[in-house]
Amino acid sequence: MTTVLDGEQIAKEITEKFPGAVVSADKAAVVVMAESLYQVAEFLKNTPALDFNYLSNLTAVDYVDYFEVVYHLVSLKHNHSLVLKTRCYNRDKPVVPSVVSLWRSADFQEREAYDLMGISFDGHPNLKRLLLWEGFVGHPLRRDYL
Amino acid sequence: MEIEKYGIVSANELDIAEGLRINSLIAASQQPIPDPDRWLDEELSRNVVITTVDYVLDWARSRSIFPLMFGLACCAFEMIGTAASRFDIARFGMDIFRWSPRQADLMIVAGTLTWKMAPAVKLVYEQMAEPKWVIAMGQCTISGGPFRESYSVVPGINRIIPVDVYVPGCPPRPEGLIHGIRKIHQKIVKESIKKA
User: Strand, helix or coil at A132?
Assistant: First the structure.
């Protein structure tokens, strides 16, 4: 069984490396600033003690006040997992840095989040609609759709 | 006295009478009597069937439908169940589900149709050769079902292609689909080549 790492413990390690990057943290998840997301993800992937080499899931949630992008990270070597989150408050043009260059599995997942939730992933090599067709107006999983 | 009245015929007279009968029979039997062959004509008249081209064509068509498999969602499993041994639509001459629209004349659309899939349905329908029929199977296909208000689901397949028989249910039982197929049969036997 995969060990779920304590979010507060990881948040301390992140804060040591990147001061001010962590917004909040509890046992379940770590929430980081959107601006420092890529550096934090790089740190989590490339630190040998953590070694999160597998992104099992990437999704987005609409909390009306802000969008939350959720990353489920797994280390296949150490057999532990972590939930990383980031928030973007700009409803008109929410932008989050892309992690495709770190984890290839983020490619389609980010396209899906862009398609259904309208979140732009900065640095994505091919950010276009995945499930819906070209020319579809709107992002249907947003709370204010229709 | 009494005996003498009738007299005793001599043997010679009997022989003469016999000879006359035989000679007259020979004279009457010079030609063979024809064999009785009236029954042959009667048998032949029983085997000539008079019917219409419409009846024969409709009879052949309705009893040899080749369905096109178009299982889109969960209804497809009821359609597969209908085709399998228990319900066995081979009884209706529908032995094989065709995967090529060019070899099929009945399209059974089973399941939720999304707008992204809709062009494929239209294309496949247009590839089918005339005459062709469509069964809309299940609530989603008929009206969009619970997804009618959705941004991605076609609210009824009759927006895309004409439908002959609607089989409601979520999903319909195989008996329901067989009932729909029987309705298609009833529809086919009413068709005429005059229209086509």
Answer: coil
For residue A82, the enclosing domain spans 3-93
A129 touches chain B (CB under 8 A): no
Distance in angstroms between the alpha carbons of the first and the last residue of chain A: 42
Q: Is the ipTM of this complex over 0.85?
A: no
Note whether residue A26 is domain-resident.
yes
Does residue A138 form part of some domain?
A: no
B-side interface with A, Cβ within 8 Å? Answer: 115-116, 151-152
CA nearest to B69, candidates B89, B49, B44: B89
Which of the residues B147, B149, B150, B151 would you substitute to probe the A interface, choosing the one with the greatest number of A C-beta atoms within 10 Å?
B151
What is the domain-level CATH number for residue A67? 3.30.460.80
Sorted by where each starts, the structural domains of chain B and their CATH numbers stand as 54-188 (3.40.50.12280)
For residue B140, the tally of other CB atoms under 10 A from its CB is 29
d(CA A88, CA A93): 9
* pLDDT single digits (tens) B42-83: 777 777 777 888 888 888 888 989 998 888 889 999 999 998
Q: Which pTM value belongs to this model? A: 0.72
- C-alpha span between B121 and B109 (Å, rounded): 9
Strands, DSSP E only, in A26-113? 29-32, 54-62, 67-75, 80-88, 95-97
Q: How many domains does chain A have?
A: 1
Shortest distance, CA B189 to any CA of chain A (angstroms) = 42
In chain A, what residues touch B115 (CB-CB under 8 Å)?
133
